[in-house]
Predict the 3D structure of the following.
Amino acid sequence: MRRGVAGLILALLLAPVLALISSGPASAVDTLCLPGPDKACIAGTIRTEDGPLADVKLTVTDEAGTATEVTTSETGKWNVQVEKEGPYVVKVDESTLPKDLVVDTGEVTVAAKFGVTKPALLTIRTADYSASTSKFDELVQSTVNGLRLGLLLALASVGLSLIYGTTGLSNFAHAEQVTLGGMLGYLLINQHGLGLWIGGLVVVILCAFTGWFQDRVLWQPLRRRGLGLTQMMIVTIGLSLALQYVYQYTVGARTVRVLQDNPSVREFGPVTITNQSIVAMVISVIVLAGVGYALLRTRIGRATRAVSDNPALASASGIDTDRVIRLVWTVAMGLAGLSGLLYALVTNGIKWDSGLQILLLLFAAVTLGGLGTAFGALIGAIIIGLVVELSPVLGMPGDFKYATALLILILLLLVRPQGLLGKPQRVG
Amino acid sequence: MSEQMADPKVDTGLADPAARRALTSGFDAVPGAGKPDPILVVDNIVRQFGGMTAVDVQHLEVQRGLITALIGPNGAGKTTFFNLITGFDKPTTAGKGAHWAFDGRTLDKTSASSVAQAGMVRTFQLTKALSAMTVIDNMMLGAQNQAGENLLKSMFRGTWAKQEKEIEAKADELLARFKLFEKKNDYAGSLSGGQRKLLEMARALMSDPKMIMLDEPMAGVNPALTQSLLGHIQNLRDEGMTVLFVEHDMHVVRHISDWVAVMAEGRLVAEGAADTVMSDPAVIDAYLGAHHDTDLGDDALLTDEALEEIAEEVAAEDAEREAEEEAEGLR
Amino acid sequence: MDTIQFILNGMMREALSPQTAAVAIAVIGLNIHFGFTGLLNMGQSGFMLLGAYGFAISISNGLPMILGILFGFGAAFIFALVLGAPTLKLRGDYLAIVTISAAEIIRYVGRSALLVDFTGSAQGIPGSQYTTGFRNLSFFGTGSFTLIPFNYTDVADGAAWVRIIGWIVAIAVIVLIVMRFRSGNAFKGLLQSAGMAGLLVFGVLLLFFLFPVPYQSTGVSGWWVRFVAWGLALLCTLVVFLLVRSPWGRLLRGIREDEDAIRSLGKNVFSIKMQALIIGGLFGALGGMVYVLSSSVQPDSMGRSLTFFCYTALLLGGAATIFGPVLGSVLFFAGRIGIKYTAAAYVPDSIMSNQQTEQFSYIVVGVALMLIVIFRPQGILGNKRELRFNV
Ligand SMILES: Nc1ncnc2c1ncn2[C@@H]1O[C@H](COP(=O)(O)OP(=O)(O)OP(=O)(O)O)[C@@H](O)[C@H]1O
Ligand SMILES: [Mg+2]
């Protein structure tokens, strides 16, 4: 047992040293305005939906009427430093804009404050870009996006739920396993030039192997030792922390991509979608259907559900629970890796904390569906995906879309604590 | 506080067997019979798990001041019934006709803790001793209305120190009664299974309940101690407490219960005095299937010979335990 | 020798830093949640952030400091109520999931560009906007000074043997203190207590002697904020001590072990858990306010990782102990800096860049958390028999 844990820990500690690549420096930083105790900054970016605009002139005028002129950089960024607090008017000089652009907001007033950089939001768009797509079209587009997110979440949360069901463990490191999929995709496909399909397969197999390995050297020995579930959960937190920083150590804090070239886009009526997204959705549906079929129809799947239902009873009736759990870990990590890989393809990049960002959604999905029920997790994930993508369309400010998902979770817990498909438990 | 402790000894006159018999003879011994002075009245409680009906009790009254046994084969729904009326579970019929009242107070929507505060305290079939706390801490938790359990007062020792002393004295007394006094400062986790049962019972008594509900209190307690505990339970009754207990040992049931209610497959199938109930064909049927003709509670074991035998067994057990403890000490 | 002195000075500085004290206060709150009551609060950083926001936003909008503090506490209070109401009746996992999500939501909302006038969005609120009032309260003089002006350089010209002897004595003192604690009667009887207190004070002074930490007492990072931060940490420790030795504390421990048992004894478990959640959350909010006193309110500095660091510190020091949180926090932060500086000093740049030493130290933190939980779940000060946390 000690040897197993020591081995894993050694592996973790050595991971950075063995890393294939080290982090490169972040891309060139534009000149910065640093606010101080008696200095304030105003900054912004001039861009259209096509990209940033360089060499655009702006004027920043204070209350007294004194104007300062700035020009945007390569990346469309600009900033000014001012020595007085108070309202400043920022105005874009339309003559310096390229042709065929429409200025929606060309002038804003910003209240400068010492020690702070205040953003000035100016909106400019290309002439043929219609910002006023119909509400219905937006709804359709967001529904597709929501389904896409939901399917990716489902891949990861089915595994999370199965692990919870069979072992009782809430695995906080699950998110890092999702990240791992994307990171390995970056290393193998982007860096080492493996083909997308071959590389993807290798990524999933490697991720599944990490699941097998983890259970072999860590979780199974800990179960044998009789470590409490809470303690095990904290072990997963430690693992999650360590992995996050292993990623930062090896890849750095930047966003990396699985494919080097930009994805091509297709349009179906009101829906714009990348080819990669379509493939990702198809793969998710096939894999999820496969998992569902296996759970319902195969011997091992039925055994898994039996263990989820009642581990003691299952092992008493001759099911090798350890084997089932090993398999669950393997499959769950494989699915998480696949989810991460697809996520990296669909959102066009992955970062050390990408997994962390969706962990919240994974937990929400699993809880919503009912802790420990695989099909509940599936339904929960789709609902959460839709909620996240649809709430901005339905009037929620974009920044609060995750909050909406959580709100729904809290409300559901109030009326149906066991989740959509869960069962209440026995007392006494 | 000290007044309260002396208080339960009000003479209800029920120490006299004849008085108790008189109480239970005034009505028909049928399932759901009405009683002269019920402390607990239950109506139309149904609990289903999926399609299976675990409990379906139409009407039950528990007579105040008596010891009532609730018996029935495994899986009859006794524990579930306990859970339901003590607020640990909700009937499927909640809001649809389920109704139960304790001491005149409706409990339909009352939480488990309020049920206990109202004076109906239970123990659990699978003991819930708090094993990482000491025996005395376990006991102290049982006392009601502690000033020190108020967050604001708890920081100021002066507001609760005196009460704490009184509670501890009471706990000591109960521990001595339940032969646990030497274990006072041990972790409850180090107690044996039977000792945990005792601790749980003693802890429940710390709150001076009006009615105590024991789920298989004697399971795993050695025979000699069972005898003395039965004596304690009878004393509690004589002091005016109502006792409802679940038990599989028919001798115990016959020995101390004034009234017996029988459940099978969730339903109340019989009620009556111990002797009559145990020879009731419906009950024997429930327990053993149709082809059995003996009386369930054969008192032959409670003869002098049998008791001697038991005493010997106890002595042997004690010796064994000492040897074990020694071995443990050596380790 | 100089490198070692540099590393140790750095560790000392980190150990004493007001942010360490701030985290210690938050960990004291977490100890009430997790250590004593068994509540899996995975969102302590959310409480901290709310406290910090309440405090900083009120003050930077011109309210007096006392109101700022009240708003900070009020925000955490409401947060606890909102999170507790749906989850405290359910199994422990639900609280964990809801708190971790809610804390992240707070952070997202704080970062939102919509609220830039209040929270300064991702940039946060600079300290200059809300710390002036606090600094004006200082009764420390100005100028640079070390806490005790007398240090190893004053003895025999700072020769190496002075430090070596000092080190040996320091280690002996620490071992002695640890042994007394482990024997379980560190504070039994007046004489014992006095001896123990003397030993502790001597140990601290000795450490100052060996690792002088000079500070300007003018700026935000001066001694004043340290003094207040550590004073509050000790005050909180005292409050927790008073709380948990009471019958209320007994209830918490009972709930940690078996809620149903406590419920069957007529205690309103929900209300007590809620009280614990609120009290611990208020400590968290206080920690958050102290955290931003010496810097600025940065939503991203109070994210999930900070909660996880709190858990590491708590488990390191010992959950369900009185001094565990403070000890754990000090060791956690000093240890991390120690690892980082050591890696920077002894591992060549070609293997580990400067940036990477930082990340390496956090990898070690994660691994250490796993090891503690597996091999020594009671931490340094805890009692193994008492600590079987099964929520
Ligand atoms: N939470 C639950 N979910 C599903 N079924 C349950 C649950 N609780 C109880 N049951 C079922 O209800 C029935 C009654 O159980 P209960 O524990 O009340 O029996 P009992 O009379 O106490 O039996 P025993 O004498 O063995 O303790 C059993 O068949 C049991 O399987
Ligand atoms: Mg039972």
